[in-house]
Amino acid sequence: MQNKADIIIIGGGVIGSSIAYNLLNDGFTGKVVVFEKDGIYEFASTPRSAGGFRQLYTTAVNIQLSKYSLQIYKNFSKTMAIDEEEVEIDFKQRGYLFLAVDEMMPRFEKHMKLQNENGVNSQLLQKSDLLNIIPELNVEDIAGGLYCSESGYLDPYSVMQGYIRYAKKLGAEYVYDEVSSLLTDQDQIKGVKLADGREYHAPIVVNCAGAWASFLSENANLPLPVVPLPRQIFQFDIEKPLQKYLPLTMDPTGVYFRHEGEKFIAGYAEEIKPKIDFKWRRSDFIDNIWPILANRIENFEKAKIERGWSGLYDFNTKDHNAILGEYPKMKGYFVAFGFSGHGMQQAPAVGKCLSELIRTGRYESLDLTALRVERFEENDLIIEDAIY
Ligand SMILES: Cc1cc2nc3c(=O)[nH]c(=O)nc-3n(C[C@H](O)[C@H](O)[C@H](O)COP(=O)(O)OP(=O)(O)OC[C@H]3O[C@@H](n4cnc5c(N)ncnc54)[C@H](O)[C@@H]3O)c2cc1C
After folding, report:
1. pLDDT band at 385 (very low <50, low <70, confident <90, very high)
2. Secondary structure (3-state) at 170
3. What's the pLDDT tens digit per position in 223-240?
4. For ligand 1, atom 47: residue with the closest CA
5. Domain ranges of the chain
6. Residues with beta carbon inside 6 Å of ligand 1?
7. What is the mean pLDDT of residues 137-156?
């Protein structure tokens, strides 16, 4: 029959496409259909991401997700090559650095111990060490930092395209239409209804619709605490180049910055109401980011803003972490959203582990049970001390 699949994935961003790729790459032989409403990914979060990759988390599950994903990203270009055409994801392992004022240092020391116990080679740096990494850094008010040299940043759009291309090669069908609702029959998922009224049926539906995912779920009476939260990024240039390329650097104020080619990007966790909104405001850079940049690195005093953009976090309002797994009391309905600001870096591990869970009913590579849907009702949240 025509409109039938074995697995339907809603959303063909980095998460949906990583799941599609991993399912087929792991040997799933059924029909996988991915629905994507935005064929050029104009508003998807993935291409609007800052592409930061870090292992500096404070919960074992997030550390494990990043550790696993790091190994995949290190070899991504070659592993995802098709007919010897490699995928250039521009992974710059220039490090990830959290700067700390005095009172943050004991907390960072605790984080480092946990990270080291979980096999991540993070280091607590003193003031003087910081200048070896960023010679121009103003460390007057800074006591030190938490640093991981293996981390860094990559090109999110290319990663997503790498997964899409390979998933298609393995047989995934991408349908560029909008899903308007989930189809259910009592406690079993049945498929999806499209905006044009057509129905597609499948016994398994995976909701990877990012910032739009919770609306679909809520409308089917399957709520989850996730909202769309706008986040801006600004690109700027300076007159006097820095001596070294920057790690992704997080200022104690929450402003982050890194190189983008020979230029720079920066962003911050602004206080803003949840909404779907893609406006970016030059004045936010001038008022809220530039003074912090200029104080931290003298060369940034002459920052010339060139462009900006805004994208959406699929923001989990309860504990800011991914929600993964089958929805209780709705057989066959799987979710993978709520990533907030760190879905890009978790996509390889999430794709692999969801493939295992969907195909075999259990996790094999990593145990991601901690991120289950039920944690909200059970009040067993995953509280991260380092989420921005
Ligand atoms: C400004 C910004 C900076 C970020 N920085 C980082 C970072 O440094 N590091 C990091 O790891 N993460 C970062 N993130 C987060 C990261 O981008 C996301 O967690 C990740 O891209 C989520 O991927 P996704 O596939 O779930 O969502 P998306 O890429 O949004 O994909 C979801 C897809 O679903 C489609 N869709 C939605 N509804 C429907 C429907 N009804 N029918 C059909 N298709 C539908 C959408 O069109 C979209 O293409 C950042 C995000 C933003 C916005």
Report:
1. confident
2. coil
3. 999 999 999 999 999 999
4. 38
5. 7-80+156-225+318-375, 96-152+227-315
6. 10-16, 35-38, 41, 44-46, 48-52, 178-179, 208-212, 216, 231, 233, 311-313, 337, 339, 341-345
7. 98
Q: Which residue has the tokens 């240039």?
A: 237
In sign, the C-alpha dihedral spanning 349, 354, 181, 323 is: negative
> Does residue 1 surpass a pLDDT of 80?
no
Q: Give the CATH superfamily of 96-152+227-315.
A: D-Amino Acid Oxidase, subunit A, domain 2 (3.30.9.10)
C-beta separation of 189 from 326 below 8 A: no
379 CB-near residues (< 8 Å, 6+ apart): none
- The token duo for 157 is 């759009």
Contact 318, 304 (CB under 8 A): no
Architecture in CATH for domain 7-80+156-225+318-375: 3-Layer(bba) Sandwich (3.50)
Taking 80 as the threshold, does the pLDDT of residue 259 lie above it? Answer: yes
Q: Do domains 7-80+156-225+318-375 and 96-152+227-315 have the same CATH topology?
A: no
* C-alpha 323 to ligand 1 mean position (Å): 14
Measured in angstroms, how far is the CA atom of residue 59 from the centroid of ligand 1?
A: 22
How far does residue 131's CA lie from ligand 1's centre (Å)?
35
pLDDT grade for 2, boundaries at 50, 70 and 90: low
265 Cβ contact partners less than 8 Å away, ≥ 6 residues apart: 50, 233, 234, 235, 236, 257, 258
17, 46, 270: which to mutate for ligand 1, most atoms within 8 A of CB? 46
What mean pLDDT value characterizes the chain? 97
Residue nearest to atom 15 of ligand 1 (CA): 341
Q: What is the rounded CA–CA span in Å between residue 345 and residue 121?
A: 17
CA angle, 276 as apex, 340 and 168 as ends, to 5°?
A: 65
What is the predicted pLDDT for the residue at 138?
Answer: 98
- pLDDT-based confidence at 388, cuts 50/70/90? low
């910032």: which residue's tokens? 211
User: Percent of the chain at pLDDT above 90?
Assistant: 98
Name the one residue in this structure whose structure tokens are 């096999």: 119
